Amino acid sequence: MNITLKRGLTATALSTMLASSVYAAPAETPPAFVKRVADGLISRLKADHNKLQNNPAAIKAIVRQNLDPYVDAQAFSRIVMGTYATNQYSTAAQRAKFEQNFREVLIENYGSALAKYSNQTYSMRPYKETGAKFPVVIIDFNNNGEKIPVSFQLTDSGNQWKVRNINVSGIDLGLQFRNQFAANVKRNGNNIDKAIATFKPDADAAIKK
């Protein structure tokens, strides 16, 4: 399996992410949300395909507009920081800095992957409502007859679904990135500031696990 393709499909799908005192669940169903985001991103990639060749700025703009708003970067970054996201190991300012850096790196990685988009298709697996706090929607991306399952774990963020974690072919990216960050903390002598500043999540290495 081409690792770059897996990362690209994840980003594409990823394409396929308490405002009031009376809390209400999102009106949109989880699968409808994932399909809307994925279809919107794919449509944009198709429409601007010729403009995206050797144009990193244009790719990043598409990610920021069509993907970034639907990802719960705070929840995702807390998953990745793991125990280092607690007051015992980091301050609120350090966690905010990690989230900022993590979001920018993801935009960079997704941009690089989406630049290689070549009209892959996808199909959604049947969804069954279980009442889980973090519902999961699974998409199978089709590439020359091969199906690559990508699971999106969602969270209700202010009456709107957002993606809080991703699983590609059975590989939990949040967990793999957490292991990478923990290793980076150790490499930096447990200096959290240095670990945050130098952390670059490696999607290729994660998917190879």
Automatic annotation (TrEMBL):
The UniProt keyword set, sorted, is: Signal
Q: Signal: present as a keyword of the record? A: yes
* Database matches in InterPro entries: MlaC/ttg2D, Tgt2/MlaC_sf
What Pfam families has UniProt attached to this entry? MlaC
Q: Where is the signal peptide?
A: 1-24
The name this protein goes by in its record: Toluene tolerance protein
**Species name:** Acinetobacter larvae
